[in-house]
Design goal:
The chain is built from 21 helices and ten strands. With about 575 residues, it is of the alpha+beta class. It has a domain of about 280 residues: Orthogonal Bundle (Cytochrome p450), CATH 1.10.630.10. A five-stranded mixed β-sheet has the order 1-2-8-5-3, with helices on both faces. β6 and β7 form a beta hairpin. The chain binds protoporphyrin IX containing FE. The site of protoporphyrin IX containing FE has 25 residues, from α16 and α21. GO terms for molecular function: heme binding; iron ion binding; monooxygenase activity; oxidoreductase activity, acting on paired donors, with incorporation or reduction of molecular oxygen.
């Protein structure tokens, strides 16, 4: 497709990354300016005028910078500037005729001052401890379902929260919309990342990568590997809680979950990295993740710069690994046998090598650059999301002690304590119905990816029956969190109740969007569910726990909503 790159994607967490990036940009630009020389000699009015002028100039500068940063090419840049002047929009409306149009979403979506006000409110929400979603929630309450419109960082954003609207935006590659991304995400993850590729490139990338996730053998070995890591972790916890040391028996769940998910995902993707290289990679992945939220300044000492350098090191490690596999003939040897014990890197290299043969269809052939970008993407997309989800699950169960007890007795019957040394299999996991409902309910409540941004490629409508008129260039966000908390879909939505998933699923399609839907559905959802189930089973059959700190404020500027304190718990071995 020859469409401008701007009109393709953000990441799976892109909405948030994007907003937070921009919010971070805004925050760092709006630090109070130093007082001008001789300010004291100004009369009050001219001081106010000067401050106003400064704010106007600063805002315009931020706006222009944002246009440049988020535009992937010349066309999109021009389009944004045109949209700003809004002449194009007016003439388009005239041509279409008002009768053909549906109502526009309630709320105001343009005007630089309005954009400034809303952006500041968004920034404030991000830095408040209530989390960035509180910005959306407040407007959702003001305007009611099925959505509203606002202006952020100079762009019109629409948030929609009906299953109907979600279907029209997420169903396999809907006409008129594309996933949205910011250029800085491509700088950090690579332009070939699944999260940043254009429509057409995305299709062939996904075709190459998706089979790795559906091979049953690969899933089974992933489950066994993750279980072994979790067992080791919890034995360590058990040992320190029984040693009676001061502070023993308390752990920070988020830290532990980040460690164990990184190890498991990394081993599945590139199994052969030496321990030191893996440790270095973990630090570098963290630096890239943190850079996603930073102002994109390429100056030494900035977070963004550190992220870019970390990316360079990651690319180098993976390049060396690929070269060494080619040099040592590993591809040839393993290629003869195939098999499920291959890591993802090996499978991708092998497939590319086989497809270079003349009789093979080379559409799904991946270059080394594409492989490297997507290995990095998978680690980043998989680690923080899953660790955050595990953390919320543990918190919800700490707050629901009765349900924790019920689940414990069910899990102990399924896999008795004396069998704790043998690793869990996929059969074990598929028999854990109540634990699975607990995972689902935790994902609903946590709504880790709160909304999914799409950009309108042309004037169109969302949800033809009840929906809104959308203009070209608007960013339309599927507000998954709001759907997950809709009382007309989920009874008592703020109550943690895994039993709600009992029996036949009577919920409307597109009302449970924890992993997205359609052509961009989460590729790692089965791995994520496996990790959550195993962590839950091992924890609930080894310990009772309660929160060690009741502070429920959220981490500021986090990529996903999560507890500021990382969820510290007190453990009691059972
Ligand atoms: C609980 C954990 C996870 C959650 C809540 C989650 C959520 C999501 C969501 C909502 C999307 C779609 C976003 C959109 O449509 O804009 C997505 C996409 C994606 N996820 Fe996940 N995810 C999780 C774990 C993982 C894991 C473990 C991996 C891989 C190891 C992974 C890899 C991906 C990739 C590659 C995409 C992009 C797919 C594409 O654009 O084709 N995710 N995820």
């Amino acid at each position: 497709m020859g469409k401008p790159k701007l009109f393709s994607i953000v990441s799976m967490d892109g909405g948030m990354r994007h907003h937070q990036l921009e919010a971070a940009a805004c925050q760092s630009q709006s630090l109070p300016p130093p007082p001008p020389a001789g300010a004291s000699s100004f009369c009050g009015i001219s001081l106010v005028a000067a401050v106003c002028l400064f704010l106007v100039a600063a805002w315009s500068a931020i706006y222009c910078l944002r246009v440049v940063i988020t535009s992937s090419n010349k066309d999109s840049l021009l389009l944004k500037l045109k949209g700003w002047i809004s002449k194009e929009e007016k003439s388009r409306r005239h041509q279409l005729g008002d009768n053909a149009r549906r109502p526009e979403p309630p709320g105001r979506g343009s005007g630089w001052w309005w954009s400034a006000v809303e952006t500041l409110a968004f920034v404030a929400a991000n830095g408040s401890g209530r989390g960035f979603y509180s910005f959306v929630h407040a407007r959702h309450r003001r305007h009611g379902p099925p959505g509203f419109r606002t202006a952020l960082f100079g762009a019109t954003h629409v948030f929609v929260s009906s299953p109907d609207a979600a279907r029209s935006l997420l169903a396999a590659e809907p006409a008129g919309f594309s996933k949205r991304y910011v250029r800085t995400a491509a700088d950090l993850l690579g332009e070939h990342s699944l999260l940043c590729a254009s429509h057409a490139a995305h299709r062939s990338l996904r075709r190459a990568v998706a089979p790795l996730f559906s091979a049953r053998g690969a899933t089974a070995s992933f489950a066994a590997a993750f279980d072994a890591l979790t067992l080791r972790l919890m034995r360590g916890w058990a040992a320190s809680s029984s040693s009676g040391r001061r502070g023993a028996g308390s752990v920070v769940v988020l830290d532990a979950a980040l460690g164990v998910t990184f190890e498991a995902i990394c081993d599945t993707l590139v199994a052969t990295l030496p321990r030191d290289a893996k440790r270095q990679l973990q630090g570098d992945v963290l630096a890239v993740t943190r850079a996603m939220l930073a102002f994109p300044l390429r100056l030494p000492g900035t977070r963004f710069h550190a992220g870019l350098r970390a990316r360079k090191r990651i690319v180098e490690v993976l390049r060396l690994e690929i070269a060494s596999r080619r040099r040592d003939g590993c591809l040839r040897q393993r290629g003869d046998h195939g098999g499920d014990d291959m890591d993802f890197l090996q499978s991708l290299l092998l497939r590319s090598q086989q497809q270079q043969q003349p009789d093979k269809d080379d559409e799904a052939l991946l270059t080394d650059e594409q492989i490297i970008d997507n290995i990095l993407t998978l680690i980043i997309a998989g680690q923080v999301t899953t660790a955050t989800a595990i953390t919320w699950m543990v918190k919800y169960l700490a707050d629901s002690r009765d349900f924790q007890e019920t689940l414990r007795s069910v899990q102990l019957q399924l896999a008795p304590k004396q069998d704790q040394d043998s690793l869990l299999t996929l059969q074990h996991l598929s028999s854990m119905e109540l634990a699975y409902k607990t995972v689902k309910e935790s994902l609903r409540m946590a709504s880790i990816v709160s909304w999914f941004p799409r950009v309108a490629l042309e004037d169109c409508q969302v949800a033809a029956a009840t929906g809104f008129q959308i203009n070209k260039g608007w960013i339309v966000n599927v507000d998954a969190r709001s759907l997950h908390y809709d009382p007309t879909i989920y009874d008592n939505p703020t109550t943690f109740d895994p039993w709600r998933f009992n029996g036949e699923d009577t919920k409307p399609p597109y009302s449970f969007l924890v992993f997205g839907a359609g052509g961009r559905t989460c590729l790692g959802m089965n791995l994520a569910k496996i990790m959550m189930l195993i962590f839950l089973h091992r924890l609930v059959t080894t310990f009772r726990w309660e929160m060690a700190d009741e502070d429920t404020s959220l981490e500021k500027w986090a990529m996903f909503p999560r507890l500021k304190n990382g969820c510290p718990i007190h453990l009691t071995p059972i």
